[in-house]
Amino acid sequence: MLEFIKNKLINGTYVTLFVLLFISVMIPVSLGYNNVWNCFLTLTLLQLARISRLLQCVLAIILFLLSFYMPIGIQFGRMNYGFVISAIETDYHETKEFLKGILGLPLLLLFISWAALYYYITLPVYKLRRKILLVLGVLFFSLAINSYPKRMIKNFVGYIIQSKKDLTLLKDEALIPDTFTDVSSHPRYKNIIIIIGESVAANYLSLYNYPHNNTPWLKTAPGFFLENYISTAPNTFLSLPRTLALSDGDQVTFNNNVVTLANRAGYDTYWISNQGFVGEYDTPATVIAMRAKHRIFLKRGDYNSALIDDFTMLKFLPDILSKEQKKVIFIHMIGSHPDTCERVIGYPQRFTVSDKQEINCYLASINKLDEFVHKVYDYAKDAQSPFVLTYFSDHGMTVDSGRRPVRHGGDEKQNYHVPFFIITDTATVHKTIDTPVSAYQFPNIFATLAGITSRQIIPLRIADIRPSEIKVFNGKEKVNYQQLSESVLIK
Hints:
- The protein is of the alpha/beta class.
- Helices cover 42% and strands 15% of the residues.
């Protein structure tokens, strides 16, 4: 028996079998096509391609090119439009942060896959009769015509083309005036403050019953606190415009947004941002921000171009709040954006729930959020004018015990379930509302808070919202939020 195995190893039979099985399992699973059929399909294509050296090399090259996505797929799953558009917008600092995440096992598996593909193209081709070769060739092309490699290439090319169109459209629409009509204003508040958070998953706030008290002020603060507010999409590029502007989920009417609505209603508008300013029309956030009458960007460049504390934005508030005009103030935080340990900037880490430091930093960043909102509230109170303060996060995060424990994702509920609350100067009790609310409804909620009516946006009170099916845009299509998987809470 030992002699038999030795002979098989010498002639490469077992090595070849191992290589074929490794490629057949590792590549489709790492690309996000992780089911038995795709593994079997890969193995079949690898074997059928050996009828011709040309087919063998072409298949190996295709798999080699697709393998560059493996380190991303291992962490984030199947490619979608959100990943592609984010990659196009990625700068040096984000690239550096991402590369740190693929060091180790993902990179090792990539190199092993390349070695396996190189070994594969050295395998001899089958010597069969012409009729059999023809039949096998037809079978190969029949299977390949709708295989995941073909679909992935088609999707990637389509996403690139779509992203270029969307970025061009972004610049074009930035110059189009809004089309709001029949606008009237009956303001209840002199100061309206909209805090836009970043990367905060609701289930990691003690406000929403997380067992560690990382939001001590918010947990008892007076106001209306929504327990089931669902963001529109799983990353900032896709989510924020669908929240702040009119959208059907797929298309966004950038010119008709809450900033231009406020302008049209006679409000003075301010946009204070710690997210960075790349260019006037380079991201949906800046396209909308540039509609504000007054703009303050703490960073020139991308969000990560400088390490500036969110608290720095607060120094502008007293002067703005003291002005006589009725106003809407948008405050765009860097919040809990990965890398979370860079966001806390010396803020005390009071909670240790994991041996993954990024998770402990994530809780610290939420603890910091609690203090940030409290300070904004105090400034608004000190101004001694009627005010309403609203907070929401643009999207949630994936938080688990993986190699990158805090990261973007689009397949779980926590990628969309985010905090939302409304605090007014007259609120005296802490009230929770469990009605599911979609962030697509934010323009309507904003119109109510600002006392604005128009033909395009019907004001909507939280109390009037009735439970309904909520859909989210996952980067590819709108899906039912309730059908997404539940994540395991780390506590």
